[in-house]
Amino acid sequence: MNRSGLEVERVKSKDGKTMQPLCMAQHYQMFRIYRRSGVNADEQIILDRASSGDHIIVAHHNQFYSVPVRASDRGRITEVELVQQLLRIMETKADPRTPPVGILTTAKRPAWAKAREELIKNERNRHNLELLERCLCVVCIDDDVLPTTFNNPMKKEDRWIGDRDYANVLHHALHGGGSRHLGANRWFDKTFHAILGKDGMWGLTYEHSAGEAPAIFKAFEELTEKVDSMSPPDENLVPSHLPAPEKLEWCLTEQSLNDIREAMMNFDALVEDLDLCILWFEDYSKDFIKSCRVSPDAYIQLALQLTYFRLHGKLVATYESAGIRRFALGRVDCIRAASPEALAWAKAMCQGDPHGQTSQPNNAVDGSPKRVQFTIYSAERIRELFDLAVQRQTKEMNDNIYGQGIDNHLMGLRYAAKEAGEPIPEIFTDEAYAIVNHFALSTSQVTTKNDVIAGYGPVVPDGYGCAYNVRKNGFIFSVSAFHSDGRTSAVQFAQTLEQSLRDMAAMIKNSKK
What we know:
Helix 9 crosses helix 10, helix 9 (about 295-310) packs across helix 11 (about 380-400) and helix 10 (about 340-350) packs antiparallel against helix 11. By secondary structure, the chain is α+β, with helices and mostly antiparallel strands. It is globular, with a radius of gyration of 25 Å. Helix content is about 35%, strand content about 20%.
């Protein structure tokens, strides 16, 4: 990365005959970007190589240490020397009297911006924040694990790390369990956090404004392969002559202490509200889907539509990230999976479900809707509707990845009008525009070499989040919801999704093609 020498990634071009390069800018920026909080808008700090890259920040016991990774006389330090520095930090004792300053990065951005203004009134604090902004990444050494109260298994045979299920592990990586556990051992404004758990778990958290998952996970998996190939450090290491890590000492006013207390309270409420569940689906894999001449991603997206329809009797605005790195500095556009074709197919699939067709007869006494079951679709007709939905979903996907999506275009028009000082066009104030941008189902495919669990929270209070990893032996789904909504449940969504996937396979096998 320092030499800008990464191999350029390539994908098939639109005609399928040639390969075209992808923009690699995200790969080079992930260790040089910092998100600085602002009252009205955050500021993205992009550091040049001359002002960054000489140190990392290590978090331990809610305290932060600056660890140089370059020596002034010989360049990059060795792996053994880095291990020695980490061991020095791990030998430090926890001090419960020391306020957890890192918790401020969990506050709402305007609140954190004001708290930051209070901090930088002191010269030492300014120095600390400068070290945090200029570091390569944050390494979080957690001296504990989350309790089993964070477990949320679908079934006993799910995969576990000791007595923790993978929902617990994802909670650990996402937020650390709040201020009562490991959540203050973070500095969330920095793009890349490597998280090391006491039980051998390790993962990452990343701040999304710097880049998308493919670039982040590529670096993460290469790092994992590097670590796996390393020999264990010698217990009899020769002491290094490097200076000890610099502990970041803070000078906190009563206002700053109040800011920390308020951030702790708000952060803990958010953590308690997050509902996570992991679905390991291994009945079949992408090979079966491809054998049906269907895109695995289109298939999964329709499974999510069917699942939502079964649970709530309707479809909603659905977001799936579409990578547009075929273009210089391209990030993502939005694949919208909720289509008339998907709705028609979901209704046909649910003709015998409780959430199938409903009607309100005139003679209903109690005012409640009466279920009316319709069995009018043959297996062949359901398959025809499925094929139409697949065609629509595939076209939507291709339109977006080749630069023909609508969402970035509309956003550009909106901000162009704003910058020109013109009134906001009526389309952006119309109720319909608000509805189509209320993404009650936020999804993304995160494909990795290994069985990586990736996830995030819903983007609206009454919504779901669903990240999925398409594997050779099946699929991994990370489902999220908010307990406070009362109508959504991560476990119920995961269970219904499992049944939807099984029903779709049966539909394909039963139809005559």
